[in-house]
Amino acid sequence: MRNLCEKAYITTPIYYVNDVAHIGHAYTTIIADSVARYSRLVGLETFFLTGTDEHGQKIEEAAKIRGRNTKEYTDEISGKFKALWDEFGISYDKFIRTTDEDHKIGVQKAFETMYEKGDIYKDEYVGNYCISCESFFTDTQLVDNVCCPDCGKETSVVREESYFFKLSKYEDRLLKWYEEKEKSVIPKGKKNEVEAFVKQGLRDLSITRTSFEWGVKIPEKLEDPKHVVYVWLDALMNYLTAIDFEKNGENMQFWPANVHIVGKDILRFHAIYWPAFLMSLDLPLPKHIAAHGWWTRNGEKMSKSKGNVVDPREVANAYGLDNFRYFLLREVPFGQDGDFSQRALIGRINGELSNDLGNLLNRIIGMSGKYFDFQMSSKDVSKFHQAELDKADKILESLEELVYNMQLHRYLEELWKVLAIANQSITKYEPWAKMKSGDEGEAMALVALVANLLAKVTVMLAPVMPEVSSKIASSLGFEVNPKTYNELIDENKILDSFKITKIAPLFPKVEEELLVEKKVVKAEPKKEEEPDNIITIDKFFETKIKIGRVIETSEVPKSKKLLLLQVDLGEEKPRQIVAGIKEFYKAEELVDTQVCVVANLKPAKIMKIKSEGMILAVRDENGLSLIRPETKKTVGSLVS
Ligand code: ME8
Fold this sequence. Notes:
By secondary structure, the protein is an alpha/beta fold.
């Protein structure tokens, strides 16, 4: 059963450029990328949009506290988002910036259309404004009479002349939409919250500001140049301007969007304001607005302003990009919050990925090589294993609905059930026993069954793990593309034959946490003229770096990377220091050499061993070197 249309338009939020991306942003983008890749795989003409949200007071201030020119600053951060998505192979069709000229023209066109329709009027606004959320709140919404209910920061009372959008006019139509379109907002729980909010009554929305300039000016026709468009109207319009709304271009055929994927923090803007704006513009409404939960750190929402973020690049570099993608989508049911932990990530790599998926491929390579010289025919698969094939096909048919309902964790769970059929078939039918008893044909059918099941899983895994999937496919001797999707999944066919190629194991077991947890320090806003990253000499001397002599070394049991060093710093007792240098230095060659040690570091436990300092080293693409004095120095001397 297909609930698809010919075209698919999939979007992420456009991210604020007040700081760089963290795993929350990567999560939304990777979900959207997986859905877009899925849409292309099943043969839909797909447009996948992401980008950056660059206007408003928050951005203006972020540039200001860094002493930067606003445009240059937004160019830099927007460039960093784009570079990260490019590095991650995110398959966007357009990266929009709200500072793009055609976007600005589109926003003005929308403003003018709504104004001419009589949906915009001028008045005065008095309200409690949160700069961080770029949002107004009523007195009753505030926490402790002054703080923003969303981010907890202090709001300020703003009184200004403003243009208003007649949001109240659309209350009934919005409620009707939620009622008639069951999947307009997903998940259901979030939809209920939105409906309840609208039922309380909607107030007209202030949609211009005069207190700052960094934004899109309202249309010249209104002859009111001090007004700039409210960032949320500006930002939401990106979904239309990206497909050439301003010139009603060909790409407008992609409208309405299939799904706007957003975090729950911005659902209200997407599920209330946005459809109301679209109604005012007489445009169809998006098919789904899907709100996911938050990634937290120790139970707190991960956010740039809280300074408790995890760098997605570091995680992907350490654990592998596809493994990270799999983890993000599999770990947390869509809509719920999840706490990021390396332990959970390692568990999934060593468990489902290595044991269930990687091992299956290894077994196919092993058996096909040993018994059939890597050349497999599927000619007798149906004869011996139709039941297993039917069972797998039934599961695979149910997957499409899960994608468009954003149940990606369930999608992966179901795929693993097909892997379980494959793994259990090997255990149950014992191809080695069949070979021994001379039933070579049956053994061939079994190994070919398993290879076909893996091929089907590989096709469906491609949207989530594109690189891994293409490696498995090439090892099995086929390609993942809309044609193979059609044959293996839609038409329930199997591949006639396999020419298997040996490849290195895809998921080596991870033995220990690969990222050293940094103590997260909340960034203090810098003074205006201070360039980035400058510290005073006093600040530098807070770090005591001393010359030490390594007197003893040993290996840390079960660790590939760590060595345990006893280092003399001229103190009463030598320091015990755990260092991640084993890949670059032999334990014995370090004895009696000098090193530089951060001596006033708070002791930490690494693999349950107390470490009382840090050895200085430098690492680049050619490896790692310890930092040492050029000539021997007295042990305990301070580096300055
Ligand atoms: O809100 N967990 O931009 P933004 C999961 N510019 N997802 C998270 C997250 C977390 N801890 N933190 C952020 C804006 N996100 C506006 C959007 S759209 C027209 C304008 C993700 O940079 C999540 O998708 O604050 C959230 O909705 C989005 O980043 C907010 O990004």
